Amino acid sequence: MSPEWQDSLVSWFDDWAAHVHWLSLITIPIFTGVIGWLINWSGLYMLFAPLSFKGFRVPGLRELTRVLPHKLQEVPGFAQGGLGWQGIIPARAAKMGSIAVDKAIAKLGTPSDFYQQLGPSEIATHIVETFRPEVPELVDQIMMREHPRLWRDLPRAVKDAIVTRVQAQLPTIVHKVTDDIGVHIDQLLDPKLMVIDHFRKNPALVVRIFRDFGQRELNLMVAFGFIFGFLLGIPVALIDQTFHLWWLLPLLGVVVGWVTNLLGMWLIFEPAEPRRILGIKVQGLFPRRQEQAAEVYADIIATDVITLERIGDFLLDGPRGDATRKLLINALMPAVDRAAGPYRGAVRIALGSERFDRISTSVANEAADRTLVPFRDPGFSRHQADKIRDLVARRTKELPPGDFVDMMRSAIKEDEWMLYAHGAIMGLAGGFLHLLIFPT
């Protein structure tokens, strides 16, 4: 560098230093660091809380929302005419359930995989053990309703023989039922509907998925908010003290707030695959802990979402419950004929074919409603949950890191702009606050 340039540079620096407000210069990075910490801390709060919408209705807001840009329509409460807030993740719980199925659970296993993992033979044995004591009462109730006189007149030995034959056939019948369910499970069970419905009704569960394995990383993100804010504040301070424009600091605060949140989200999720930058291995905090996350995720799915209890509820009371009941009835119908044994001809003649068939249908209908009740046994469901947990954990660990990140991030990706906007607003407010405290 020539002497003339050196003299010019020294002269410029002396002139710059003479006009610097040193207290303002020093405090700006500290200020932006604190603001960065607050941005990430409050941003996390906005992600997870509150679980349900908190606010108040504004007359006409629902109608106004329809003509607003699509992004603004997605703000929690706006579409319902409310002004307030609901955590982004709880508000998008059903959406996350849908994406979790598409990105991960569909790859973790088909409905048949989940059902087979639960052990149809063990389920059948449990159903038999639970259902067998109810057989005498079931047969007695139906016969007393359909043909009380005949049933009262039958010798006790004949009644006992019928009940005994039904009980003896029970294991074969039930194993056929569970086998038939297994054959048709892809048509009877829809894990996507199960997951979406359960997440929608239990938004706290979705929050748990993030917090149970990621709380340490989320806390680190908040701490990094100060570091990012402080580092970004250094050039902001230099620019502010160079141009001395009152509006420059609030404007740069918007940039700092936006970038701080952007870097925070990047720190958590990106890059999904490990990379080397300047010889240092870099990977997002969440995908780095995929192994541990898989265990937590599997425990939540097996304990709360895809359980034997909920499968039983879905099979009987879900949108395809009629198909399940029809399958059960078709499997149970022959039981009545076989139960009558050597008395079948005499009973059919005594009752008439129409009444005999009606009793047969009635037995099948009543038994169908009771057959899957043992699915809802919480104790047995917890015992079987270990098998689902092992399947989900194993398959989640095998997911490519990109798919794992998609599963965790996709539900909020479209709404991240709200966090960035929140950071920008706080950065703007921070800039004005600094001007108020340290006027230049």
TrEMBL record:
Keywords: Membrane, Transmembrane, Transmembrane helix. The chain crosses the membrane at residues 20-48, 218-239, 245-269, 417-438. The keyword Transcription does not apply. The keyword Transmembrane applies. This is DUF445 domain-containing protein. It comes from Nocardioides luteus. The lineage of its organism: Bacteria, Bacillati, Actinomycetota, Actinomycetes, Propionibacteriales.
